[in-house]
Amino acid sequence: MTARSQATNTQKRPKVQCSATTKQLLFNQVTPDRAFLPAQDPLLRLPPGLQAYEDALQELPKLTLGSPGFLRQTLQDLPCFDLQQLPALASCDTAQLLQQLPPACQCYTAAAGTSSSSSSSPQQSTADVLRSFPSCDAQLWRAYMVLAFLTHGFLWCDGPGVPSVLPHLLAGFLWCDGPGVPSVLTQLLAQPFAAVSAAIGMPPVLTYATYNLMNWRRLDPAAPLELGNICCQHNFFGGMDEEWFRLIHVAIEAAAAPAIAALQPLQQAALQHDAAAMELHFAAITSALQAMQELLARMGERCDPYVYYKRVRVPMSGWRNNEALPQGLVYEGLWGNQPQQLYGETGAQSTVVHALDAALGIQHTKGWMQAYLTDMRAHMPPSHRAFLHQLEQEPSVRDAVQALAQTTTSSSSSNNNSSGSNKSSSSSSLVEAYDAAIAELERFRSQHRAFAIAYIAQWSKKEAKEVGTGGSDFVPALSAYKDATAAHKLAGSSSSSRGCPLHS
Ligand code: HEM
User: Fold this and answer.
1) What is the pLDDT of residues 41-98, one digit of tens each?
2) Which residues does heme b bind (predicted)?
């Protein structure tokens, strides 16, 4: 499709009206307590009229144990997903809605100007971004999650493509082996999934939001949202490794909240040249990043790297740059049955690190990773995209630190007696506070890169050697991101002496 026809389609995008009477919302705000996790604990069920879909999701890990074909057949035998059961869509003409849906892959160009090919437009306000995708209805989000799990179960958890943890490498076993992966998503799932996705402004594919951000519940509803008091709502294959992998992400999102809560106040303090306040916000970011590292270091406690590589990550796959579905996926009956290409679920869709980069003024060199990460924004809830967009509209905090440091230095050299205004702090302590935050972000990236190697690259390298496929080209890109982060320190790298928590 040409850029021009994409732009035309964007203008024609149907606006699905969200019912104003809906009471429970999800992803409608970024809160100081929970940042990008939902402010209210996520819904556990759809309305009773959609019970069969909830039951299928509940049973998914059991259904994957059936003989080849069993899971897909079971899903194809479900009754029609009645969109009218969702109060927010009850007044929609769903047949008309389905006919008007934009192509799925348009999320890379239509989502709030976040495409890699058309970079974010400075004219577009946060309100514009949110207006494009207004619905935060909790039931629509629940339907989106249910349909995403069943779709990925249908594609990746049945037939000869089902992964095994047995060491089949020499035999040439690959998870995407043979005819196991259908290139057509049954209409029964494709149509409601596409419609619900369009209504909330998300791509019709499993996302970080559905896999992690809203896929948990508290064991004790009165106790905090933290590791030890959370479990997953749903799994594909089930088991401790899959569950733990996600819970670590959820816990990291919760631990990141004090850092995310500090970002906009930090930008305000920078605008007001309030160095003392800036130092406090940098300190909050620094300690949140340390807490995030402590949590990531616990990944190996219950998620084994090999089980992750061979089984846990499989259902997260998408249908873009995926050799199992080289053309993409046909959503049966939609978009002229033309295959759509969409990336699968990844931590790169978490808004946390994007937001830290944006607020701390970290810039990365252009390359495939930068374009990819821009595309990943289309997989974030619209309110998170809007939050990022807002951060990016403010002047650089890094420039403000540099300017304040220079002012303080020159005023103290011209006036030995100077203690500056009560808003000032010494130039060195402000720079140190900024650099400490950068150093922790660099450590997080360094630790994360080590996990990406331990959980993916080392195995795909072996496969590449043994069966001539696979690859780990993301490792140099992750290294470059880590190095670029470090390069933003203002006073050298002396504060970066703590070891990598992966090895602690
Ligand atoms: C064992 C755990 C993890 C593994 C194996 C892993 C793997 C990867 C891989 C392979 C990439 C390259 C791009 C892609 O494939 O999407 C990536 C990127 C990324 N991941 Fe992870 N990841 C893990 C945990 C996390 C966690 C806990 C977070 C944060 C919540 C996270 C956030 C990111 C981000 C933001 C990027 C983009 C690169 C950057 O900004 O530095 N990942 N990850």
Assistant:
1) 999 999 999 999 999 999 999 999 999 899 999 999 999 999 999 998 888 888 888 8
2) 448
Contact 398, 360 (CB under 8 A): yes
Question: Whose C-alpha lies nearest to ligand 1, atom 26?
Answer: 347
Residue of 215, 346, 376 with the most ligand 1 atoms within 8 Å of its CB, for mutation: 346
Residue 296 CB neighbours (<10 A): 21
Domains of the chain, start order: 3-411+421-503 (1.20.58.480)
Bigger pLDDT: 238 vs 129:
238
Question: What is the predicted pLDDT for the residue at 6?
Answer: 36
CA-nearest residue for atom 4, ligand 1, is 452
* Confidence grade of residue 464 (pLDDT, cut at 50, 70, 90): confident
Query: What mean pLDDT is predicted for residues 248-271?
Result: 98
- Round to whole Å and give the CA distance between 333 and 67: 28
Q: What is the mean pLDDT of the chain?
A: 85
Write down the pLDDT at residue 413: 61
**What's the CA gap between 181 and 31, in Å, rounded?**
40
Closest CA to 330 of 194, 202, 183: 183
How far, in Å, is the centroid of ligand 1 from the Cα of 112? 23
| Whole-angstrom distance, CA of residue 391 vs CA of residue 243 | 33
Instruction: Give 476 Cα–ligand 1 centroid separation in angstroms.
Output: 13
* Nearest alpha-carbon partner for 147 in 73, 225, 60, 232: 60
Q: Which pLDDT belongs to residue 93?
A: 83
Q: How far apart are CA 407 and CA 127, in angstroms?
A: 36
Task: Tell how strand 216-218 and strand 184-185 pair up.
Answer: unpaired
* 213 DSSP assignment: I
Rounded CA separation 370/379 (Å): 15
Phi, psi of 31 (to 5 degrees): -105, 155
C-alpha span between 395 and 358 (Å, rounded): 10
- Three-class DSSP category at 177: coil
Say what the pLDDT of residue 110 is.
56
Q: Is the CB of 452 inside a 6 Å radius of any atom of ligand 1?
A: yes
Question: How much is the pLDDT for 162?
Answer: 56
pLDDT at 169: 34
Residues 364-381, buried b or exposed e (16+ Cβ, 10 A)?
A: eeeeebbebbbbbbbbbb
> Which contacts qualify for 243-246: CB closer than 8 Å, 24 or more apart?
243/302, 244/299, 244/301, 244/302, 244/303, 245/299, 245/303, 245/308, 245/312, 246/211, 246/212, 246/215, 246/216
Is residue 154 within 8 Å of 332, Cβ to Cβ?
no
Q: Which amino acid is at 52?
A: A
Q: Which two tokens stand for residue 137?
A: 């209805």
Please write the tens of the pLDDT for every residue from 305-349. Answer: 999 999 999 999 999 999 889 999 999 999 999 999 999 999 999
